[in-house]
Amino acid sequence: MTGLPGVRGAYGRAMATHTAQMPVIAGPLPGRPTGRAQALAAAVAVLRDDPDTDTVRALVELASLEVSAGSPAADASSAEALVLGQNLVVDEATLAGLFETRGLQLNFAGLSPQAAAYYRESARLAERAGDPVRLGRSLYNLSDAVTGTDPAAGAEAARAAERHSQDGAGAVGTGWPSGEVDDG
User: Fold this and answer.
1) CA proximity to 93, closest of 55, 119, 128, 58
2) DSSP string covering 109-147, please?
3) Where are the domains of the chain?
4) Are 167 and 22 in contact (CB under 8 A)?
């Protein structure tokens, strides 16, 4: 598989597998994302006083909603969640999700090379944690971030995403948001 048609094919297959798994990965979200974001922001404000993994979870959920909405606050909350997760020494699967969310924010902000670095680290951590679903998503996002400047690397990441997404097709998601939010 070489050239642009090969990249498009691998990317399309990885995206189809990824999209088919979204209910397993993120689960349905309420139809009122603004209200959910406000509730999460209130929870984060309370949880910051004595931060723990619940604080990390609330921050990454808030960051995911903000990223999807294009909120200017997404940069700060995705960075804060990642720093707090590292300071609390969360497990590798959780840390992989934090890197992925930060990568989504950077990619949406047009900082694809930085986003790619975060996606690579997310993929590395997901692989070490034995999480094929997260690994597939991280590689899918990596493909998206690099294909414009390096089609061969994009195709390679898309093929790997497709393989890992298929490996995790029957797996239950980690419960951590992926950054994709359904406004439905």
Assistant:
1) 128
2) TT-HHHHHHHHHHHHHHHHHHT-HHHHHHHHHHHHHHHT
3) 3-21+33-167
4) no
Between CA 170 and CA 167 the distance in angstroms is 8
The tokens 């609390």 sit on which residue? Answer: 88
Q: How far apart are CA 49 and CA 45, in angstroms?
A: 8
pLDDT digits (tens, 9 = 90+) for 6-65: 545 554 554 454 444 443 334 344 456 667 777 888 888 889 889 999 999 999 999 998
Amino acid letter for position 3: G
Q: What is the CATH superfamily name and number for domain 3-21+33-167? A: Tetratricopeptide repeat domain (1.25.40.10)
Q: C-alpha angle with apex 175: 169 to 181, nearest 5 degrees?
A: 90
C-alpha span between 112 and 70 (Å, rounded): 16
Answer for the pair 14, 159: CB distance below 8 angstroms, yes or no: yes
Residue found by looking up tokens 């689960």 in the block: 27
Type and span of the H or E element at 70: none
Residue with tokens 């999460």: 40
Q: Under a CB-based contact definition with an 8 Å cutoff, are residues 161 and 136 in contact?
A: yes
Question: Tens digit of pLDDT for each residue in 58-117?
Answer: 999 999 988 988 889 999 999 999 999 999 999 999 999 999 999 999 999 999 999 999
Structure tokens at 97: 């999700």
Alpha carbon distance 156, 1 (integer Å): 10
